[in-house]
Design goal:
It is a single chain. By secondary structure, the protein is mainly alpha-helical. The chain has one domain: Rossmann fold (3-Layer(aba) Sandwich). About 40% of the residues lie in helices and about 10% in strands. It is built from seven helices and four strands, in the order H-E-H-E-H-E-H-H-E-H-H. A two-stranded parallel sheet has the order 1-2. It has a two-stranded parallel sheet with strand order 3-4. Helix 1 packs across helix 6 and helix 6 crosses helix 7. The longest helix is centred in the middle third of the chain and has 16 residues. The protein starts with 6 loop residues before the first helix and ends in a 9-residue tail after the last helix.
Length: about 210
C-alpha cells in the first residue's frame, strides 16, 4: 500500500487492510516540504499494525516542484493548468519502487490511491497512466514474464472526494490521522489546493472533518 498519510491513501489503506491478508505500507521521504504527512503515515501504519517501509528519494535535487523547492511558492487553490505542486514523475517513480518491493516480497497486489475526478490535475493520477504502467511492469518484472504479474489496484480512481470521505467513514478509516495540506506545520493552512479539495469532500459529504476537531 502506497501510504502518503493523506486522505485518499488513508482510505485506501483501510480498504487494503480489509481486503488482503497482510499489509505492508510504503511511504516516501522525497524531500517534501509538508513532512507532517510522513508522521501521519507512520501513525496510520501503526493503527493497522502494518509494517511500514520508508524509502528516501531526494527529489529536491532535480527541483521543478513547489513541494520540494522552497524557492517556488505553493499556489492557493484555483490555479489553472497543472499546478506548481506537481512533482515531476512522482507516481511513475513511486509505482516503480512499489513494484520492486512487491516482487522482492512476493506480494501479489500494489494499491495506490490515485484519483482522476476531484484532484489537482496531475498527469500521473489518470487511469490511462496506470493502465500503461501495468503493461510496462508486466514486461519488466520476473513475475510478469512468468505469468504472475503484480496487480495494481486503484479503488478511488473514479470517485469524488465526497465519495471517498463517505467510503472512509463506512470502512472505519482513521481519517483523524490523515494530513492533506501541502504546507508543513501543526495546523492545515486551509488555502492550498489539497486543503481545498479535502474541505470540498467533507462539505459535500455533510461530514465534519475529524482532523480539525
Amino acid at each position: 500500500m502506497l501510504l502518503s498519510g493523506g486522505l485518499d491513501s488513508t482510505v485506501c489503506t483501510a480498504l487494503a487492510a480489509r481486503d488482503h491478508d497482510a499489509l505492508l505500507t510504503l511511504s516516501f521521504d522525497y524531500g517534501q516540504r509538508h513532512r507532517a504527512e510522513l508522521e501521519r503515515a507512520a501513525s496510520i501504519a501503526r493503527h493497522y499494525g502494518a509494517e511500514q517501509l520508508v524509502v528516501s528519494i531526494d527529489a529536491s535535487q532535480w527541483g521543478g516542484s513547489a513541494l520540494t523547492d522552497p524557492a517556488i511558492a505553493i499556489p492557493e487553490a484555483g490555479t489553472e493548468g497543472i499546478p506548481a505542486t506537481y512533482v515531476p514523475a512522482r507516481n511513475l517513480i513511486f509505482l516503480s519502487v512499489a513494484m520492486g518491493v512487491a516482487e522482492a516480497r512476493d506480494a501479489d497486489v500494489v494499491v495506490i490511491g490515485v484519483n482522476a475526478l476531484d484532484y489537482s490535475g496531475y498527469p500521473d493520477c489518470r487511469p490511462e497512466f496506470v493502465d500503461s504502467f501495468r503493461i510496462t511492469a508486466a514486461l519488466a518484472l520476473k513475475r510478469g514474464v512468468e505469468g504472475r504479474p503484480v496487480t495494481i489496484e486503484t479503488p478511488l480512481i473514479d470517485r469524488t472526494k465526497a465519495d471517498i470521505v463517505r467510503l472512509g467513514v463506512d470502512v472505519g478509516a482513521p481519517l483523524h490521522l490523515s494530513w492533506s495540506c501541502y504546507r508543513d506545520g501543526s495546523v492545515p493552512c486551509g488555502e492550498c489546493d489539497a486543503c481545498h479539495l479535502r474541505a470540498k469532500g467533507f462539505a459535500e459529504a455533510s461530514i465534519a472533518d475529524p482532523a480539525l476537531a
